[in-house]
Design a protein that fits this description.
Isopropylmalate Dehydrogenase; 2 domains; alpha/beta; binds 3-isopropylmalic acid; single chain; 22% strand; 356 residues; binds nicotinamide-adenine-dinucleotide; binds manganese (II) ion; globular
Length: 356
């Protein structure tokens, strides 16, 4: 038997709704695989901000440091500026726990209708490895004459050789996995961003030398966006900076069916700190409270969490249950063309455990 301590931040909007289902599934699969969960619920979100003037308490990171993993829904509230919610919670967690890898798979499952023209199941099967602690998201910059006519915002990107090399190395290691196709695409923009992106390009070339068995190519981000739509089957592992990885993974989500299907892991591969698992999507204010959010992204994120914790068998069972349910095409939320509710899909995933 193993026991894991999980910090749970449901967050805002549909984050709350989908994490409920993820916890149901984790609990059910835990009973089958002898995994005991110690869920620590943290009520940190925009309502917490309205009450306390901050997104989470001053010792929040210390509290979470005690956990094995963090399971997060999403934060974001229509009445609160996004930089407050995100810089007050999500981004400090990724940085403080040095979760420098953001791992985001995009797979076209059988039964999904892609907005692209007739791709076959598994024609799209890629893994985006997004740098998660520096790059364009580095907290470097400032205002001059803020609020005045002359106002200037300076936003600098930080690309360190160490930061680029470690994320690119992780991508190459993933490409070598038995279930991948030994190909890595580097996303760059060194034609326009001639400092940081050159550090990135040089790091890519240096790391690639150590992986002669892996094929590589390099694409400019604009061309990569085009190819995600034009020929997504050409991608296996894709490695990109923080912002480029962010943009590409929304494209990856929608070409494989829905934002409601895309999982992610924010990982500290050295396991010094807890890693965090969350759907790629946000708090989706346009559908919150209606009970129609797709919980599959949250459930597949929970499966990534199981794998991180060493429970590969349990993770496989969860993945297969979700894929089985999609293939059945009956109990689905409206984003996938169904009429079922968030909790009906959660229940159906539990019923499908062991199937597929
Ligand atoms: P979003 O991902 O919340 O929504 C984009 C679109 O996808 C919407 O049409 C929404 O209805 C749909 N969608 C999202 N999740 C879905 C689900 N589970 N099932 C079905 N459909 C789903 O992106 P947005 O609208 O740009 O952002 C809303 C808020 O969330 C903003 O405040 C943003 O900053 C925040 N955000 C937070 C996170 C996070 O905390 N990890 C991630 C992304 C966005
Ligand atoms: C994501 C989100 C976040 C990001 C935002 C909400 C800060 O879009 O996880 O993809 O850009 O990383
Ligand atoms: Mn995003």
């Amino acid at each position: 038997m193993s026991e894991h301590k999980v910090s749970v931040i449901r967050g805002d909007g549909v984050g709350v709704e989908v994490i409920e289902e993820g916890i149901k599934v984790l609990t059910a699969v835990g009973e089958q695989y002898d995994v005991t969960w110690n869920f620590i619920e943290h009520p940190w979100n925009s309502d917490y901000y309205f009450e306390h003037g901050r997104m989470m308490p001053t010792d929040a990171l210390d509290q979470m440091a005690e956990s094995d993993v963090i399971y997060l829904g999403a934060v974001g509230h229509p009445d609160l500026q996004d930089h407050v919610t995100l810089n007050g919670l999500l981004l400090p967690i990724r940085r403080t726990f040095d979760q420098y890898v953001c791992e985001r798979p995009s797979v076209l499952y059988p039964g999904i209708t892609s907005p692209l023209r007739d791709p076959k199941p598994y024609d799209i099967d890629m893994l985006v490895i997004r740098e998660n602690t520096e790059g364009e998201y580095a907290e470097v910059g400032g205002f001059q004459y803020a609020g005045f006519e002359e106002e200037i915002g300076i936003q600098s990107g930080v690309f360190t050789r160490r930061g680029c090399e470690r994320i690119i190395t992780y991508a190459f290691e993933q490409a070598r996995r038995h279930d991948r196709r030994k190909h890595v695409t580097s996303i760059t923009k060194s034609n326009a961003l001639g400092y940081g992106m050159l550090v990135w390009d040089r790091a890519f070339d240096r790391v690639a030398e150590g992986y002669p068995d892996i094929e590589t190519n390099s694409l400019l981000i604009d061309a990569a966006c085009m190819d995600f739509v034009r020929r997504p089957e050409s991608f296996d592992v894709v490695v990109g900076s923080n912002l480029f990885g962010d943009i590409l993974t929304d494209i990856g989500a929608i070409i494989t069916g829905s934002m409601g299907l895309a999982p992610s892991g924010n990982i500290d591969p050295e396991r010094r700190f807890p890693s965090m698992f969350e759907p790629v999507h946000g708090s989706a204010p346009d559908i919150m409270g209606k009970g129609i959010a797709n919980p599959m992204a949250a459930v597949l994120s929970a499966s990534m969490m199981l794998r991180h914790l060493g429970h590969d068998d349990a993770a496989d069972v969860v993945d297969k249950a979700v894929i089985f349910l999609i293939g059945q095409g009956e109990i689905l939320t409206p984003d996938l063309g169904g009429t079922s509710s968030t909790s009906q899909v959660g229940d159906a995933i539990i019923n499908a455990l062991g199937k597929g």
